[in-house]
Amino acid sequence: MNILEERILKDGYILDENIIKVDSFLNHQLDIKFLSELADIIKDYFKDKKINKILTIEASGIALATMLSEKFDYAPVVFAKKQKNKNLGKDVFESHVKSFTTDKEYRVTVSKKFLSPDDNLLIVDDFLAEGNALKGLIAIAKQSGSNIEGIAVAVEKGFQEGGKIIRNEGHDLLSLAIIDSIENGEIKFK
Amino acid sequence: MNILEERILKDGYILDENIIKVDSFLNHQLDIKFLSELADIIKDYFKDKKINKILTIEASGIALATMLSEKFDYAPVVFAKKQKNKNLGKDVFESHVKSFTTDKEYRVTVSKKFLSPDDNLLIVDDFLAEGNALKGLIAIAKQSGSNIEGIAVAVEKGFQEGGKIIRNEGHDLLSLAIIDSIENGEIKFK
């Protein structure tokens, strides 16, 4: 059992059969020292890749992406924006994403200034369930001509389809904890 | 002229008389090494305060808050959420905030689990204009009984009222760069 699986069992809790909350350390309150340790594991896994940019999506992915920047020689972080911001300008890569947690569809954008074919990306997020957010980031990366060197998430819900779909597309996806099932209040990892 | 003022002149640009964009290093693409240097300045200013929690608001405040956590012995970061999330639960502190950039009003929440009278807060954000986001965070901090030890922002637009209002309430507010005017394409600092 790795440090994230241990932490989920210690501090995570189940809201219903589908939803596990890790808001005390990963996506509302943030334990930055712990995120740095997770970033070390991700860096070690992708150490042979020439990653020069970290791509994530607001808001929960930003802290982990920030710690990853430190591990990858301060590669810039770019975070995709979830709503149309009148200040963003029209010169954006964009995709549409359906949120699993809020059930709403939203537009995701990245300014064309910040992704190019010169970029070797590590795509990062906190959670992977149906994979909609990651699919949106992958679509944006492809529009930009960037190379996707790898994808890292903290928690994958293995009983949903996102991880399978993304791996089947040939992406090198690292999930630090894969939840196999949540049954009768018990979390089992793959 | 400090490092942020220099960087704004080098990489910032003016969208109109009121809006200055620093999206290449502060709030869309993030220069994490530079944010760490800004965090050092903030840490030095508040070094005599016993800060044990960093409070910010999604999304642009999170990276700077993350770097500040490192400077303050890995104090936990809590970021306020901008929309009602069905997974957040009802047990939240909340306020309502009007966005200067999108002109919409939104609800801001923090789970009651993560703020208490034991907390000595440093409140952080990237931008201060009318001060609406900070006022929302201050309201939430007050609801929780936390102590607000200080407030830090990267860029204050000194020609708008937010900074004045917050200082008049007696808060110790550090703005790393205060823009005095934007006229004829020229940025002047206070």
From TrEMBL, chains A, B:
Enzyme class: transferase
Superkingdom of origin organism: Bacteria
This protein's UniProt keywords: Cytoplasm, Glycosyltransferase, Purine salvage, Transferase
Residues engaged in binding 5-phospho-alpha-D-ribose 1-diphosphate: A129, E130, G131, N132, A133
Entry GO MF terms: xanthine phosphoribosyltransferase activity
SUPFAM superfamilies in the cross-refs: PRTase-like
Pathway participation: Purine metabolism; XMP biosynthesis via salvage pathway; XMP from xanthine: step 1/1
Originating organism: Peptoniphilus olsenii
Keyword check for Transit peptide: no
Known function: Converts the preformed base xanthine, a product of nucleic acid breakdown, to xanthosine 5'-monophosphate (XMP), so it can be reused for RNA or DNA synthesis.
NCBIfam families named among the record's database cross-references: PRK09219.1 (NF006671), XPRTase (TIGR01744)
Name this protein carries in UniProt: Xanthine phosphoribosyltransferase
Phosphoribosyltransferase domain boundaries: 33-158
Residue numbers binding xanthine: N27, K157
